[in-house]
Amino acid sequence: MASSILVVGEVGEGGLAPITKEMLGAARRLSADGSVGCALIGSGVEAHAQSAIAHGADEVFVVDDAALAEYNADTYLQAMLKVAEQASAPVILFGQTNLGRDLAPRLAFRLETGVIMDTIELAMEGGRLHGTRPCYGGNARAVHVVNADPQVATVRAKSQEPAIEDSSRQGQVTNVDAAIDQSAIRVKVTSRSGVSAEGVRLEDADVVVSGGRGLGGPENFDVIEELATVLGAAVGASRAVCDLEWRPVSDQVGLTGKVVSPTLYIAVAISGASQHMAGCSGSKNIVAINKDADANIFKASRFGIAEDYATIMKPLIEAVKQEKGA
Amino acid sequence: MHIVVCVKQVPDWDIPPSSFKIDESLKQVVPPPGVVDVPSQFDMIGVEAAMLLKDEAPDTKVTIMSMGPEAVQDTIKKSLAMGGDEGLLLNDTLFEDLDWYQLALVLSTAIKKLESVDLVICGRQAVDWDMGVAGSGIAELLGWPALTIGKSIKVNDGTLVLERVLMDGFETVEAQLPAVATISNELGEPRYPKLQQIMQVKKKQVTVWSAADLGLDDSQLGADARKMTLERLYVPVTAVECEFMEGDTPEEKAQNLAKKLAEAKLI
Ligand SMILES: Cc1cc2nc3c(=O)[nH]c(=O)nc-3n(C[C@H](O)[C@H](O)[C@H](O)COP(=O)(O)OP(=O)(O)OC[C@H]3O[C@@H](n4cnc5c(N)ncnc54)[C@H](O)[C@@H]3O)c2cc1C
Ligand SMILES: Nc1ncnc2c1ncn2[C@@H]1O[C@H](COP(=O)(O)O)[C@@H](O)[C@H]1O
Question: What top-level class would CATH report for the domain A5-184?
Answer without folding.
Answer: alpha beta
